[in-house]
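Example A, followed by Example B.
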Amino acid sequence: MRIVSLVPSATEIVASLGLSQYVVGRSHECDYPPEIAHLPACTRPVFQAGGTSASIDDRVSYLVTSALSIYELDLKLLRTLNPSHILTQDRCEVCAVSLGEVEASLSDLGLVQTQVVSVKPKRLDDVWSDIRRIGKVLCVDGNALANNLARRVESIARQSQSAVRPLLKRVVCLEWADPLYCSGGWLPDLVDAAGGTEVIGKAGLDANPIEWSTLTQADPDVLIFAPCGFNLARACDDLSLLRSKSEWQDLRAVKTGEMYVVDGNQYFSRPGPRLVESVEILAEILHPADFNFGPREKRWTRIEGLSDSEPTVTTNPMVVS
């Protein structure tokens, strides 16, 4: 068995199923677990993902609306690797190489025997289903892993619900700063499991741009900044974009110090096994007296009140610098 995984979350699923030794290639964004870092990258972005959030959004939007790919497949390398299985996705044109591009490339290369497995999760339960399906295709039992992860989430949900609380905390998760994007997909499910309620983003729907007036009208108790593809340090850099808006100072969460920045790249944006750790992060944030899952420095940080000073944090290497 020779596996090429073109999606970071799928790479983590394969590794959690105990199949790392069969992975022969990865995407340029697959950086976890560490033992796959030496493998050749079969993809590359068509532009360097540096610059401001607005410029990144402009470039990505232009490529998507022009029906152009954001990533390139290394066809020569793919032919050399001759994979028995390729894991990809067909949920998001921005997240990774598309299913259609992979299928067309395999046809051009004559790799007709390669089995393509595509994931398309929209909700948290879809992620557990993907784990079971990938396990079945790769001839291992994915049920045990999926069930264990689901039980861990359910345990947190039960504990968060067991405490006597006057009201659920109203939460807004932001996935981008400029333009402002609310959360979607599985993120509202994570908030629910951690004992909060997402008041703008809708579970199962795509993250969407919103007006600042939408955020101020929602006026959440807790604000979570989880920019897609950014680690903790890079996300903290973008706080200046939020703080530059006059509406920022009026938000309840900012006034009360209930503003948090999390590592979206490693946790919240990856629909794989570590979504459980994302629920743990949210539980620690929403209910600090009830949950403590260990050191937080590389996972999340709290932004105090109305201070203009930037937080100092340490984190993993950036995907987007």
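Example B, a separate protein, is given below in the same form.
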Amino acid sequence: MSLELYKRYEIVFLRKNKYGAKFGINRIAKLVNCNRSTVVRWLKRWEETKDLSDRERKGRPRKTTTTDDEIVIGLIRQGVDEGLTSEKMQEQVQTEGINVNPRTIRRRLREAGFRYLKPLSKPLLSEHHQKKRLTWARSLMNYDWNQVMATDESVFRLYDIKGFYWQRPGERKICRKVKNTIKINAWCCLSAVGFGRIVCFKNNFNSTFLCNNIYHDGLLPAAREHFGRSRNWVLLEDNDPKHRSKASVKWKEDHHVKTLPWPSLSSDMNPVENLWSLLKIKVAEKRPTTVKELIRAIEKEWNDLPQELASNLIDSMKRRVDSLIEANGDYTMY
């Protein structure tokens, strides 16, 4: 479906006009509700001709009308929870007198910015959890996130299959994996200053190991590097029982470590969660075959991360909080 003329000029205004916002390509695509490639195409047309009207078309006439396109897109908007396939949509639009094949339907949906993807998995939040999350977000609307050290833990596995491959139908890429893979636990921290320490270990992760090896050897040295001798920094960690154990609470009190209150089921608010998937893909590309190679790969990829990424992740906390308030305490898209 062709983009309306006023939206084409809106793209140019948001990007080029001296009184406009001068947004980036991705931001404009989201605001105008179209593909990134659509934004690029109309900006290029503006640079070439300063005319955004439709050119005379050549070749076969378009199979569907604007009204037909709206009916197709309307099916998706109405049945967003039904998982409609293009074949099922073909059957439904035929009742409206529209005779098109599934490929045409998929093409129209792609033109409108839709992609056939797996749904995102989000926790089922009770009303109680939503209220707690909303109260937490409202209390932090004007919080200084530059004084926060964000932390999290995750697991890396040997022969973990991460990443994407170009594949033809019937010629699928095969990756061999064993049933019980060897795993390495990892803890990391970051702040607006940059990335801190990453600690890799095979030990069972309990409160004793957390205090003696993670907090003492990882958290405190990173905090001194990022905040000097100041005690005004705050620790961000989730509600894992190890973090709330008596031993952990006492250790933090003895070492004057303040902890940011954290609502349950709120992994979408922790910026480190977004980092793990990126790091795991990069580590999997190294194809480690032993535990030592896996640990070396984790540490190397961690050290190679650009420092501005850490700053961007911490900067996202303000937007995360705003998104949580806008969602009234329900899940966000982070």
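On Example B: The mean pLDDT is 88.
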